[in-house]
Queue: 2 jobs
Job 1
Amino acid sequence: MHAGDATIAPTSLLAEGGAPSILVVDDDTSIRRHLAVLLARAGGQVRVAASGEEALALLAAGPADLVFTDVEMPGISGLELLGRIRVGDPPPEVVVMTGHGLLDYAVRALKGQAIDFLSKPFESEQSVMAAFERALRHRTLLLENRRLQRSLAEANALLARQNLSLQDRLEDRTAELLRSMQRLAQLSLATVAALADAIEARDPYTGGHCHRVMFWSDIIGREMGLASEAEKLRYGALLHDVGKIGVPDHVLLKPGRLDGPEWEVMRSHVLIGERIVRAIPGMAETVGIVRHHHEMISGEGYPDRLSAEAIPICARIVGVVDAFDAMTTTRPYRVALPLEEAVRRLEEAKGWQFDPGVVDVFVSREIFRIRPTGPAHISVDEAAGTAAWAA
């Protein structure tokens, strides 16, 4: 413990019905203190460490529910610490903290099963609290999931010993376990969606873009009878631009048209996005959407110059909706186009840039006039059926 830091509180694990035990690891005293105050105010029992070595010593003395750790530290780095503490049953949930532009660290942390990441300097106290709440929800559900698994094992053992019919009880507990696992999957998506929100936060002109693309893509998919692709389509649409986290600000936020070299940098976002979604458990099916949503029917798109049916249908849907939203959103170098003009351009480009069938569904059924209700940042579940007609 370092002089002036927050007092070490006794460990009280959620599993024992107490407040969450939190460990903050950062070699920067001001960040360490700031986080300790915020997380203690949120109800956590907070301990702090100035290094990876000190963190391991504190964890050996008492486990933690949540660990917030810096990546770049002398001695044991945050990534090495992540690998060493993501053991045990259950291991702590880890939120890594990285400086801007350290994309590789974020991807490696997600591969190492970190639950979330924060960019430093922190955008706001709200962003820290959002990461805390996501990690805490995931931890709570994980512990509940473990409790249900133990309960199922006990019920199975009782059935074997007594040879009694406990089928109804087992079915109820199995259904409860499945619901718990589904909630965990949704929280994993929420963590990834934070990446999409981080991109939109960097560009004030594209707020809500990923969520609108998800909303419209879901409606088109259902209209085209793609029920079996629904989950993949929604998740891939939400994450289609996640690779822009690796595009430098001077390119992403340039107040004018990009030159040739800048376009090459911007186009790399589909490859960066592919790397990110491959690193996230359960998101492998979205790779085709993230990588190929800028391909063209004519074969003139990128990154692989795929054409026609070789382009995954979900990527073709997202490509149409992505282009439409871009045309109808004001950018630094032009104002938004009227809906009718954007529709005319879609019609003009179908058959060589866009899939004719997708454009026809989007236009003929006037899906482009449907807008999400409520806040711009709707959930995946809300996108599956919540819509209102706009004038």
Job 2
Amino acid sequence: MRTCPTRVTALIAGVIGLTSLAVADEAAKPAAGLDMEATLKAAFQAGELMDLHGVYITIHGEPFAEVYFEGQDESWGIDLGVRQHGPDTLHDLRSVTKPIVGMLYGIALDEGLVPPLDAPLIATFPGHDDLAADPARAAMMVRHALSMTMGIAWDESLPYSDPNNSEIRMENAPDRVRFILEQPMVHTPGETWTYNGGAVALVGKLIENGTGMRLDEFARTRMFDPLGITEFEWIRGADGTPSAASGLRLTQRDLAKVGEMVMNLGQHQGQQIVPEAWLQQSFTPAQDLGELRYGLLWFLADYGDPPSWVAGFGNGGQRLTVQREHGLVITVFAGRYNDWEAWRLPVSVIMDHLVPAIRAHREDDNGG
């Protein structure tokens, strides 16, 4: 995972912190937001934002900027051709799926349906007692799956079109749970962070086992219906299991609804959807990654307590960033799949377009 969002969001924080950005309604987006849409369109036409599919940004729950583009797309590797993206277009979230699954675990935990964080991981999967004979492997706990610190060998540095990528090997395995749990131990659980879609697959399986529902159905009843999200897809693997690591497809506005719910500490229209205590625990750093920190399936800013911002990053340039202090939700959809430089696209949207727009809005508020 190559990214450098820390300096970007620090700059945003400095700009937003100087002004209030309340927007009355979508029809009355501020001039700065409309200008941002115009600069995004111009940059796209100039070839500077190739493969950008959409940008939707809200501030204090109101639309600030929204723009969509035509472009080649795919769904979990299946070519969808050239599409005109729009507010009703379902789009792969890829690994932005992960923090949503983390929140679903928190909901299930609050209902007493899944094991607590300090439960031994292998013991939660009956039929794998032989693997617990290894003391190092037996030391894995549920929290290590949620924080990607299981200590197993796992490599997702290869393209997801490569069958040697660990996540693809898992998808092709006859028993994905056993495949994950039997990977060689290379670190002490809890000590080293390794990007690991298999860890999230285990989290998803614990949700299914505990609730007696498929992951997508549990998501629908506990999160999407309360948020008013009626259209979504959840891609399933060859064994019919919804991919907890990367399979969710939402519209951009609906992803922003999820972000707004996070902004409001799990509440939507007075209803507590995700327990506030779970979000606070999820945003507590479990690992320091250098320019980033990592909580429970969320990337975190490397500064602030609580972190200045939280985010999900997805293959191809997908992005959900929530900066609660300043009421900011950023969503970006793009099609640079399997490109290790794809992170530059959402960063460009933020640095070259959002930050100047917010600065201009501040100047307008101050009378120029």
